[in-house]
Amino acid sequence: xxxxxxxxxxxxxxxxxxxxxxxxxxxxxxxxxxxxxxxxxxxxxxxxxxxxxxxxxxxxxxxxxxxxxxxxxxxxxxxxxxxxxxxxxxxxxxxxxxxxxxxxxxxxxx
Length: 110
Description:
Layout: E1 3-10, H1 12-20, H2 25-34, E2 39-45, E3 52-57, H3 61-72, E4 77-85, H4 88-98
């Protein structure tokens, strides 16, 4: 199954609710991904541009998109970004195929 890395940030209101009622949001994240047949591999909070990161496994892009849309539409986050991760083998396959693509730079003669 494909892996996905999500970066998220809470709204100030969400942080205030969590301060008032601390809870393990990893359990909520786990239930979201499991509802589409996936798995949560990790949930971390961080300092910096984003408040946290998730590593997910989902059956396909549509399943992950459903989870991302549900979370993003919930109103607790100010940002939610998801990146599809490629395995080394998938990247090697893409590199091999890239040699067959006849790319032409903008403005270059044909």
